[in-house]
Amino acid sequence: MSRINIAIAGVGNCASSLLQGIEMYKNSPEDSIGLMNYNLGGYKPGDINVVAAFDVDKRKVGKSLKEALFAKPNCTTVFYDKLPDYPVQVQMGPVLDGVSEHMADYPEDRSFVVADENPCDVAKVLKESGAEILINYLPVGSEKAARYYAEACLEANVGFINAMPVFIASDETWAKRFEDKNIPIIGDDVKSQVGATIVHRTLTKLFENRGVILDRTYQLNFGGNTDFLNMLNYQRLTSKKKSKTQSVQSELKVALDSENIHIGPSDYIPWLNDNKICHIRMEGRGFGHVPLTLDVKLSVEDAANSGGVMIDAIRCMKLALDRKIGGILTSISAYTMKSPPIQYTDSEAKKMVDDYITGRRER
């Protein structure tokens, strides 16, 4: 099979874990622990090749990709440090609304420090690099910046995977633009392998399937990476809270009133670094209207938790490119994203992806 040339917007913790994982599984073909699919349509993790990267932090811009992946403020666990010397230099992207003003109130090792550089022409870099797919890993709340990269993909004829909660794939106008140009798009807002949202969804579906009425629920999340620091600015959280909430609500036949469901980032605790702590509480009524309460705590490395999911999304998009399919990739969006254009249960989405991989389903 051919290589899969990708570009990355945002060389943060998620990018670091993704590339560590690609190299680890490429060099340990007998080890498939942590992967949902080792061979997907003939493509393996090691077939993914990075050809361009964009960031705005002075500790990353102008540096080699290998150096940037381990530069501050990245704090994710290093589980594979034998990365190659990628022939890729991190380019300066447009800042726009990508950096919240409150970041300046925190130590540099924990926050973003914008480089004093002029932004590159992203569409031009994408064309010249030979990128086929761009992954959008920008910080939560980067509405204008996310749309800039989506525009660049449309101009450069590059597939777009929107891993953040800005509604692009799930926006009819944007979806039509990608459809009209026959460019594939996957989105929005990546759903971790076993993360807070998918656990909450699964438990909600369990209540529904077993005849238990869910009366109220909350999900509180804590972490110490730049994502959680960034989200202390609650003005940037509108799309994030909507994305996570509608993902859980979609598992219910009758949605909960807004006062009975709270899902969203809660606080920043620096010493947690990239470890994310999630507390879920669900209160309902079972047989005889007898109360039932469920409390769950999840502790997980945030960035690594989405790495395997992204490897599947990349390879599914490559299949679309091979098959000359553009527009929304419905099945893999439902399987890997919190806010796909159409919500399906996780078991339904898994079956749809299997059918898509084998060609029994177009998208």
Detailed description of the structure:
The model has no long low-confidence stretch (mean pLDDT 96). Strand 4, helix 4 (143-156) and strand 5 form a beta-alpha-beta unit. The protein is α/β, with parallel strands linked by helices. It has helices spanning 13-27, 65-69, 122-129, 143-156, 172-180, 196-209, 226-230, 238-249, 304-322, 330-336, 346-358; strands at 4-9, 48-55, 91-92, 133-136, 159-162, 184-186, 213-223, 261-268, 275-285, 291-301, 327-328. It is globular, with a radius of gyration of 20 Å. The relative contact order is 0.16. The chain folds into two domains: 4-191 and 304-358, NAD(P)-binding Rossmann-like Domain (Rossmann fold), CATH 3.40.50; 196-301, 2-Layer Sandwich (Dihydrodipicolinate Reductase, domain 2), CATH 3.30.360. The strands form two sheets. Strands 3-2-1-4-5-6-11 form a seven-stranded parallel β-sheet, with helices on both faces. Strands 8-7-9-10 form a four-stranded mixed β-sheet. The chain has eleven helices and eleven strands. The longest helix has 19 residues, at 304-322.
